[in-house]
């Protein structure tokens, strides 16, 4: 993130005159009293020397204090605080509390300058269309947030309002449209902007240009608008110049009680914006937790690798949940950031955990896959004694029993060589298709989305064979391939222990989130005791399935499985559904069924020996491929 600070190291005010004046008057005093004894003269000279020495010491000390801090960490927080105050005071004096902001809105270029320094400059048609928003600190003029909302597209206006609501009162907010920003700018968003003081917002339409500066929670500073003359052309460039009075620093900061977590908060809130309550002066949300300890914790020394890119708001939410659940230990969590992005790193500092940025390699899916490899290698290097690592992405919530779940299941990976992962996620675990929180499955498709990885598997098998940066492979698809999997399986829960909330990313969009992830279940209790753990090993599990088949009732093939009446309105019964499956990779019938059942149908997941398990209408359903499955 760009940070613009006007004249950041302004020279400090040093009271030279007064100090030298004191010494000078002593000299005059000396020359006016000629008849005083030599001893007294000697005394005066001594006083003079002492004064000069004290002055020099004072000057040296002052200039030392004013050295710029190389890095603001928790340890030199006090220095940071002093430095900040001095900077702000100095700045305010020099600029007499004023800044000039110039904003341009046009078809191909948007720009914002503050006192002649560009804080936004985006030129070129076909890139970054929409409303550009920049948030400035009202005391320093430094940039605290920058966002683009492509309000030509649906729902971006809602995201913009959400973002605006998260900004602290008093901040300077600047808006400018590039190309087109009104097609899906609905009335709720327009009303919100009108409430911020915009006069033109209700009249802004297709391909108009618009620039607007306002104070959050306060008044409008300035606005410019040009209408587009016809559907096929753009409005003339809007240029807006405003002079803004900067606030005294005391008004731009909060007086939180001084303690360790509030220090982190203060550093964070002085740099970035758009995080809502965490920076509230009156009622800040907590950033330190003392989560309950896990009883019989089997994973107390297992590191947690959080895989992150540049979605700092996701990371903020994810870490807030993770660190508050029972068994969480911030010291074991490391966030790996794919690139030198500042804001995600600030988020890790806010939560008081380790953040590591590294250089991206490859593009698109290859980049993600390289990011995983680098992060996993680094995790095992950072924790040389750890035999396991928990891997989790930045766009997931975790359940209150997330650590408890892994603590109860970890031993299975040690004891059963036919397993190669334990995941917190069930691809078929929708609200209507799962039910039993203490039930586990074995599946051949590794789901990821919060999983336990053994060092041995990584070091001996995965790391040496990991796809190179030139391969556009999804790392998880690669891991599911039998060339890597070698007929091994993963343990998953019936009800997931993670929830996917992210709707933006390389392979994600809001539509996809709505259809495939929004209705996923997640466990809400901290202390679920998993059942039948001793029956999860290969042979025993096959026994469990055979028992279920023996006790199950076959569903009639004469009904259309897409009809709601296909599954009887019974409770706690076991039903068997035999479907056509000519070979273990013949998924034709399954795909139709998955669509009818409104479960994951984009590819085929969650099976064990050509058999799927799920719950529908309170009943346990086993879907068995014939003749591919050994259970048929
Ligand atoms: C710091 O002070 C806040 C009140 O502002 C309090 O809620 C929090 O628990 C304190 N944190 C620590 C670590 O003492
Ligand atoms: C959930 O599954 C476990 C393991 O099969 C079983 O023991 C338990 O009775 C089930 N609970 C419910 C409520 O069906």
From TrEMBL:
ILEI/PANDER domain mapped to chain residues: 129-218
Single annotated GO MF: carbohydrate binding
PROSITE patterns reported in the protein's UniProt record: GG_LECTIN (PS52031)
GO cellular component terms listed in the entry, alphabetical order: Golgi membrane
Pathway: Protein modification; protein glycosylation
Membrane topology: Single-pass type II membrane protein
The keyword Nuclease is assigned to this record: no
Keywords: Disulfide bond, Glycosyltransferase, Golgi apparatus, Lectin, Manganese, Membrane, Metal-binding, Phosphoprotein, Signal-anchor, Transferase, Transmembrane, Transmembrane helix
Alphabetical GO biological process terms: protein O-linked glycosylation via N-acetyl-galactosamine
Membrane spanning residue stretches: 39-60
InterPro entries the record matches: Glyco_trans_13, ILEI/PANDER_dom, Nucleotide-diphossugar_trans, O-linked_mannose_GnT, POMGNT1_PANDER-like
EC number: 2.4.1.-
Catalyzed reaction equations: 3-O-(alpha-D-mannosyl)-L-threonyl-[protein] + UDP-N-acetyl-alpha-D-glucosamine = 3-O-(N-acetyl-beta-D-glucosaminyl-(1->2)-alpha-D-mannosyl)-L-threonyl-[protein] + UDP + H(+)
Annotated localization: Golgi apparatus membrane
Cofactor: Mn(2+)
Domain remark text: The stem domain mediates specific interaction with beta-linked N-acetylglucosamine moieties of O-glycosylated proteins. It also interacts with its product, N-acetyl-beta-D-glucosaminyl-(1->2)-O-alpha-D-mannosylprotein.
Role played: Participates in O-mannosyl glycosylation by catalyzing the addition of N-acetylglucosamine to O-linked mannose on glycoproteins. Catalyzes the synthesis of the GlcNAc(beta1-2)Man(alpha1-)O-Ser/Thr moiety on alpha-dystroglycan and other O-mannosylated proteins, providing the necessary basis for the addition of further carbohydrate moieties. Is specific for alpha linked terminal mannose.
Assembly and interaction partners: Interacts with DAG1 (via O-linked mannose moiety). Interacts (via transmembrane domain) with FKTN; the interaction is direct and is required for normal location in Golgi membranes.
Entry similarity comment: Belongs to the glycosyltransferase 13 family.
The protein's name in its UniProt record: Protein O-linked-mannose beta-1,2-N-acetylglucosaminyltransferase
Species for this entry: Lottia gigantea
Phylogenetic placement of the source organism: Eukaryota, Metazoa, Spiralia, Lophotrochozoa, Mollusca
């Amino acid at each position: 993130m760009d940070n613009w600070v006007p004249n950041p190291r302004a020279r400090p005010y040093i009271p030279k005159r007064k100090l030298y004046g004191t010494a000078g008057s002593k000299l005059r005093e000396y020359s006016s009293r000629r008849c005083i004894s030599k001893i007294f003269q000697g005394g005066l000279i001594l006083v003079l020397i002492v004064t000069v020495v004290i002055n020099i010491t004072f000057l040296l000390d002052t200039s030392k204090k004013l050295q710029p801090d190389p890095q603001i960490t928790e340890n030199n927080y006090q220095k940071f605080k002093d430095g900040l105050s001095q900077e702000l005071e100095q700045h305010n004096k020099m600029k007499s509390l004023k800044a000039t902001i110039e904003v341009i809105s046009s078809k191909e270029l948007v720009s914002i300058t503050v006192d002649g320094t560009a804080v936004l400059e985006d030129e070129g048609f076909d890139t970054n269309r929409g409303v550009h928003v920049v948030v400035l600190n009202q005391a320093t003029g430094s940039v605290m947030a920058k966002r683009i909302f492509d309000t030509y597209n649906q729902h971006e206006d809602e995201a913009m309002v959400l973002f605006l609501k998260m900004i602290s009162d008093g901040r300077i907010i600047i808006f400018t449209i590039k190309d087109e920003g009104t097609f899906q700018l609905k009335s709720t968003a327009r009303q919100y902007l009108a409430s911020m003081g915009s006069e033109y917002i209700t009249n802004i339409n297709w391909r108009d240009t618009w620039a607007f500066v306002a104070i959050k929670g306060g008044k409008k500073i300035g606005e410019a608008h040009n209408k587009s003359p016809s559907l096929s052309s753009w409005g003339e460039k809007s240029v807006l110049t405003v002079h803004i009075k900067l606030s005294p620093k005391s008004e731009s900061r909060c007086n939180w009680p001084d303690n360790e977590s509030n220090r982190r908060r203060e550093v964070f809130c002085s740099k970035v914006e758009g995080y809502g309550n965490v920076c509230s002066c009156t009622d800040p949300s907590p950033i330190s937790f003392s989560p309950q300890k896990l009883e019989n914790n089997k994973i107390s020394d297992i590191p947690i690798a959080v895989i992150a890119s540049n979605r700092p708001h996701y990371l903020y939410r994810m870490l807030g949940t993770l660190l508050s659940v029972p068994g969480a230990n911030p010291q074991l969590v490391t966030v790996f950031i794919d690139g030198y992005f500042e804001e995600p790193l600030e988020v890790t500092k806010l939560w008081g955990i380790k953040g590591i940025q590294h250089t991206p390699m490859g593009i698109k899916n290859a980049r993600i896959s390289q990011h995983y490899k680098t992060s996993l290698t680094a995790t095992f290097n950072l924790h040389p004694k750890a035999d396991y690592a928990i891997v989790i992405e930045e766009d997931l919530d975790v359940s209150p029993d997330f650590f408890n779940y892994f603590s109860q299941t970890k031993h299975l990976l040690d004891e059963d060589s036919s397993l190669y992962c334990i995941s917190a996620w069930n691809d078929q675990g929708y609200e209507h298709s799962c039910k039993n929180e203490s039930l586990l499955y074995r599946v051949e498709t590794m789901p990821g989305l919060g999983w336990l990885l053994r060092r041995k598997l990584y070091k001996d098998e995965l790391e040496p064979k990991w796809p190179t940066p030139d391969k556009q492979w999804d790392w998880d698809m690669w891991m599911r391939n039998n060339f890597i999997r070698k007929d091994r399986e993963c343990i998953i829960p019936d009800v997931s222990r993670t929830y996917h909330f992210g709707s933006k990313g390389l392979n994600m969009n809001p539509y996809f989130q709505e259809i495939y992830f929004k209705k996923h279940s997640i466990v809400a209790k901290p202390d679920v005791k998993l059942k039948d753990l001793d029956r999860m090993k290969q042979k025993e599990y096959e026994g469990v399935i055979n028992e279920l088949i023996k006790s199950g009732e076959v569903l009639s093939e004469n009904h259309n499985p897409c009809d709601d009446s296909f599954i009887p309105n019974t409770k706690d019964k076991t039903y068997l559904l035999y479907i056509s499956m000519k070979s273990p990779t013949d998924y034709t019938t399954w795909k139709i069924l998955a669509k009818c059942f409104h479960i994951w149908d984009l590819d085929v997941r969650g099976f064990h020996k050509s058999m799927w398990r799920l719950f529908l209408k309170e009943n346990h359903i086993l879907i068995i491929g014939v003749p591919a499955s050994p259970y048929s």
